[in-house]
Amino acid sequence: MHEFRVQVGPAAFRIGSQWKRPLDQLAEFYRDYPVPEIPDYSVRLESVSLLRRFIRPSVAINGDYMLPDAAPLPLAQGLLAAEMAMNLQMALGWRRHLLLHASAVEKDGRALIMTGQSGSGKSTLAAMLGHRGWRFMGDEFVLVDLDSGDAVPFPRLISLKNEAIGAMMATALDGRFGPLMPETPKGDIRHMVPPADAIAAMSRPARPALLLFPSFGFDAAFREVGPSEVFMRLTQASTNYVALGEKGFSTLTRFVQTVPARAIDYRDGIEAEALVNQLWAECV
Amino acid sequence: MTASQGIKYKAEPADQILVTPLDSLTLVYQRRSGITHIVAEPAPEILAAMGTDAMTADEVAQRLAAQFDFDGTQAADIIAARLNELADLGLVERCHA
């Protein structure tokens, strides 16, 4: 079993694999990240059977936390399998912070947090803003400190999907991109290494200052979202709110009472950036 | 006489719930169950008015009527319906006389 270790924000991972190639890819893309001594989670990329280790190799995701019905992926999508496995450990196991399924960027010590359904563009917007003067904090999870309420970065590889791949390759000309993985269960996927400043500052939290619910594909518009609606949406966007009990309640209620929220519609990155800048100036 | 008359209700003790009013709804976190309830008025007002007393719907209505400007006798059925909903949520307990 080959092994790779990486620290992403506050979480330390050990990834074991029966194949070397996915770990070589991880080592290349995570080369600027710290290597932890003691992992929080272990994940394993294993063949579904002895035969499938060699013939049409198929990667099953195993680890401390597992979904019993997760479909195996072809070996060519081994990097995706590793990323999914790490996300799964966080989603099912993390208890040190309130975990929101959201992306975030930072400016002047304050965090802009974006959450929404898959396809809303939260990941692409965070990646784009990370190349336009903001510090990228993460595109999958925002970790909210249970005591301070600060957003803690989790800047894993950025997962670009479908049209976002071409858009980001045009925006981040100096970006480091992973292999194109066509026709995954989530469409075409290409990973991107976060900007160097995001990795260097991944232990530096930021105070949540604005929450956006982006919707891609509509004429540019925004509306205020009240605390009750924000609370309901964020309980759905959190995988550990219930598990955290009273701490989760106090952390989330403080968040919704102190962070202004807007829903934004946009058709392209230029519109989105203009709306973000406008709302940032108005609300922060 | 309504079905709820004669039934007394007792609210979850105040130190067992965390109540956070938001813009249009109120969050009630129940320590015993770890469940967050999202309720609308008059549920939070009912819980606050009941305090530690075991009360019928009529008594709750009269107490609320004294605090807010409405006719308690006409509101008793509405209060009884809300009390039964709160009982189903586990935020009040039915104590049969």
Automatic annotation (TrEMBL), chain A:
Single GO MF annotation: kinase activity
Keyword tags: Kinase, Transferase
Superkingdom of origin organism: Bacteria
Full protein name: HprK-related kinase A
Lineage: Bacteria, Pseudomonadati, Pseudomonadota, Alphaproteobacteria, Sphingomonadales
UniProtKB/TrEMBL annotation, chain B:
Domain of life: Bacteria
Listed InterPro entries: PqqD-rel_X
NCBIfam families, A to Z: PqqD_rel_X
Protein name per UniProt: HPr-rel-A system PqqD family peptide chaperone
Organism: Sphingorhabdus profundilacus
